[in-house]
Amino acid sequence: MRSSLNECQDASASSLLDWAGLADGGLAEAEACVDGALESLIVHRDGDAVRAWLNICPHAGRRLDWAPGEFLRTKDGLLVCAVHGATFELSEGLCVGGPCRGQSLSAVAVEVRDGVVRLSADALGTAALRTGG
Questions:
Q1: Most buried among 37, 62, 122, 129, using CB within 10 Å?
Q2: What's the CA gap between 105 and 31, in Å, rounded?
Q3: Side-chain-facing half-sphere of 41: CA atoms under 13 Å
């Protein structure tokens, strides 16, 4: 599942993807304007919560997906960087194994409004917000 913006827009109005299309526990890639730059994001649904991070591994600054929007997971559900195998838990984006252990993915604040995952007004901040409707 992938969404794209052709140019940077006001971050508070940026629609990322359809909430119903993101399965519970699922990961998706979306592009959004964050701090004035078009960025690839990892979006994760956890029940009624949605979290997002920049799609950049803190170890080497490379994307985590092995192909656009395709992410590797361990049997335990950890996100795996396709380049060097760093593993990240999905509640906070913390690296729990590999070359960047102890570092975290950069959180991007998102929310669900009117059935759409959007950047929240604070585009870089707390990653998990409850759905609003």
A1: 129
A2: 16
A3: 30
Q: Are 130 and 120 in contact (CB under 8 A)?
A: no
30 and 3 in contact (C-beta within 8 Å)? yes
- Which residue spans within 1-133 are E strands per DSSP? 2-3, 15-18, 27-34, 37-46, 49-54, 72-73, 79-80, 87-88, 95-97, 110-113, 116-119, 129-130
**Average pLDDT per 10 consecutive residues for the chain, totaling 133 residues:** 50 77 96 90 96 95 94 96 95 96 96 94 47 36
Q: What distance in Å separates the CA atoms of residue 45 and residue 35, rounded to the nearest whole number? A: 23
Q: How many CB atoms lie under 10 A from the CB of residue 96?
A: 13
- Residue 95 and residue 86 in contact, taking contact as beta carbons nearer than 8 Å: yes
Q: How far apart are CA 53 and CA 27, in angstroms?
A: 11
